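Dear support,

We are seeing what looks like truncated structure output for some complexes. This example has four components. We would appreciate it if you could run it in full and send us the complete token output so we can diff it against ours.
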Amino acid sequence: MKKEQFIQFMEEGNLSVPKYLLNNYVNLGLNEKEFILLLHVHSFVESGIIFPTPMEIADKMTIDPSECMEILRHLLQKGYVSISDEMDEYSIKYERYSLQPLWEKMITYMMDQNKQTTQSMNQQQEM
Amino acid sequence: MKKEQFIQFMEEGNLSVPKYLLNNYVNLGLNEKEFILLLHVHSFVESGIIFPTPMEIADKMTIDPSECMEILRHLLQKGYVSISDEMDEYSIKYERYSLQPLWEKMITYMMDQNKQTTQSMNQQQEM
Amino acid sequence: MKKEQFIQFMEEGNLSVPKYLLNNYVNLGLNEKEFILLLHVHSFVESGIIFPTPMEIADKMTIDPSECMEILRHLLQKGYVSISDEMDEYSIKYERYSLQPLWEKMITYMMDQNKQTTQSMNQQQEM
Amino acid sequence: MKKEQFIQFMEEGNLSVPKYLLNNYVNLGLNEKEFILLLHVHSFVESGIIFPTPMEIADKMTIDPSECMEILRHLLQKGYVSISDEMDEYSIKYERYSLQPLWEKMITYMMDQNKQTTQSMNQQQEM
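Here is the complete output from our reference environment:
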């Protein structure tokens, strides 16, 4: 392996995936393809490609662009990802994907889980 | 959200996924389910559960234990993951999953890609 | 670079540092040496060495074991790290470092910051 | 803790630090302040601030802007970080920090270590 390849590998960097998300994407209502697609969107945005096309995303998956577009539409509708309108320093409008809805779903799920655990503990104590 | 929940979330931590792997798992011959299954194995091992059962893994995916076992067998056969025999301080033998084969496949692919790029550049220069 | 070296590099893995912590360790009352020492403790624990000696930690820093011990004592006293007593499956007691106090300090700081921002916004609106 | 705060925390994300680098920055000739300063530069660049000022960096450390400038100059001179000239889509030139030199120093060190280990093993076998 050449030095240049290793340096390029280092420059690409890593995607940090919260283990809580990895452990609970199914509980949040996602299947593997949907979850990975969100990771790809996350990775693109982090790398500066803030509004990747279905073609660019599909290119890194085992799906074709039309299936990718369909999954994206589904994820947008169900509120796992959103598109926000922004404006750059030259007043040119642009769109970007945001994973804020995913984090919101995750935290809501965490809080619900906690409530249920507390309730079942209270019920056990009462019995 | 309670403090305790946030602390627990921090304690679970993150899984670092090399973006090169995320961008190239399809080129390495993996589909989404297989890739995610490997991430789960990676995450289990990092968390100290070094030989998770198919049931434990399937529990975090949209597949059932028997499908999980089949995918695991396929990944072991094709050399994406291996099982190594180790011995603890009390001379008790145990098994653990290792992702070394995956890293080896990845680096081999990186080196092949680089060769092909160099070759096609040489061919272009010759023309 | 040999394949084996790259594989070993991959096996060592990465430490995920929350950018919020990186951006605010000074606000939490830490200097660079103390912050890095906590990262080393974090890294050791993740790698399975749950109670590293001051010598092991100092070995990876520009400080000697006695300075390391002093910093550790300071961090324990001030509540940035704690030592918890645990018991293994053979009922043998052991100690481990925990970064829970650090996460608690971080979340408390986050919440305080938020309150201050809200208050100053309210004051501005009142004026 | 409010949901919005948690979402903001998630949006800031994590910095992935190779454990090999964490374990060997001293061997690469860096002290804690220099190492952390490089992590800050890395974090800024990842967040889209590709050429942070000494003031912006010092603001997150226990040093003042002039000490920060001095350390930066030292790191540039000794080849741990570099400044590269780039051009945007509107042909406007801009500068950015690059950590490529750091990765190169790291890989060179890894390879040297490996050679020494091999040599000492050969010497032991000869004896």
